[in-house]
Amino acid sequence: MCAANLQENPFPDQEPKALHLGVKILHDPVRNKGTAFTEDERKALKLEGLLPARVHSMAEQELRVLGNIRAKPTDLERYLYLISLQDRNENLFYRVIMNHVEEMMPYIYTPTVGKACQEFQHIYRKPRGMYISLHEKGRVKELLQNWPHKEARIIVVTDGERILGLGDLGADGMGIPIGKLSLYTACAGIPPTQCLPVMLDVGTNNEKLLNDPLYNGIERHRARGPEYDELFDEFIEAAKEVFPGVLIQIEDFGNTNAFRLLKQYRDNTCLFDDDIQGTGAVAVAGLIASMRITGGDLKDQKVLFLGAGEAGIGIADVFVAALKEEGIPEDEARKHCWFVDSRGLVCAWRDHIADHKKPYAHEHEYIDNLLDAVKTLKPTALLGLSGQPQTFTKKVVEAMAEINERPIIFALSNPTSMAECTAEQAYTWSGGRAVFASGSPFDPVKLDGQTLVPGQGNNAYIFPGVGLGVIVSRSRIVTDEMFLAAAHSLANLVTDHDIDIGRVYPKLSRIREVSAYIARDVAKMAYERGFTDKEEPEDIFKEINDYMYRPVYPHYV
Questions:
Q1: What are the sequence ranges of the domains in the chain?
Q2: Could you say which of 33, 115, 180, 507 is catalytic?
Q3: pLDDT digit string (tens) for 305-319?
Q4: What is the third-level CATH fold of 109-269?
Q5: Is 109 known to be catalytic?
Q6: DSSP letter at 306?
């Protein structure tokens, strides 16, 4: 092998003969090592004179990166610095993220990614991923063939209509697929060259964006009906043809499209919706773990949801599946879940109930506000997925604490600014008795001589592991059963120490371990259910760990 070729090629979709020389390799984020190129490599790759004289180790480069990040004045500046690092040196980027995941995840994903998406047209630096708009209808396959990495195994696609709790951000929502795929690599070891972020640009109804001369998307209102469906279907079919066996995650679609698209494609495409299924699994895992604090049984819980969109319905569906496992009939299990939306209690008499809410529209008198719903229904758990900040008021939390010795209160709306209440509020207003979790991170709270550590019900605990299991097993579909298995896997990894400090999720620093165990259980299910043509290996866990990417520099000579 010539000196300019890889001795060990960690990117199998990239032929060694395609290796760039000179300044071009410094501009290739997959292969660039910066000051870590050795003297022999600098000679062989024509890099002499293009780099400072000293050769640094990867650990020394990491120290430089950490110093720069910590010196930045704002989280958005830290986000921009990290994205720039990802654009020039992916191995170093992922080493920093993996070694400091608790510190770095809020910068590359929630809550900072929400601010980044709101400013995306103004902070845009360098293209990442693929943009497919209505203008390219009929040519989607041709566009996907332009992607340089020919073995994409996971696509995260959004149309930007419902970005976190921020609403319609159109093409500026591209920050979400980019961030999600960074977590697939950092949390579950999916090789970065196998990850493809996609923005399906069908317009936006956000007038502020349409009037901004720097907006990057097409300048029209959001497409609906056949025009939209034809583009989405073309994208799905093209992705399956260009990247056989690819897993597609649909992300941050509006309620109008999310439920129907999942229903339409889930049985014939390797596809899932993280906002529905991933959120469902992570919240139910938290509820299962909470039983170790409250001393209750899952079958005796009554859950009241504020918000009846994708996330809330997704959680209820997984919760119902968990109750069915315990022998409770489906109709009865659904009666353990109640919803309050913008019109009040979702109940059977109401007209114009969206299809996804109908299974949870129970017989009950009308209640027009959350506080009265809590007092009347007497739930054991209150879950917020409304995107409406500070809706778990002092009176609401106090009412939950009157009804329950250990009230379960999950304020799951993202980003932090949209949380229904803070950790400090939940603990203080409940006299330190609340079992609290949130979608975005909150600091530990000191109260009456004890330190209470809130759990973060972040989907990053679920979707990377599910994706890893599906990819390694080459499952043809992704099922609700897999997400319930993931919920149990996650709950089982909560330690006694976690429970002692009030945390119902594992420490975030264990995320790769968590993902590997979830992937094992998901892959095992794919093999047992016949969802794959691949033969089951003797040791699934070993196969998963062998597949997982690790950020090390390749040797060129």
A1: 16-105, 109-269, 277-460, 461-495+506-547
A2: 180
A3: 999 999 999 999 999
A4: Rossmann fold (3.40.50)
A5: yes
A6: E
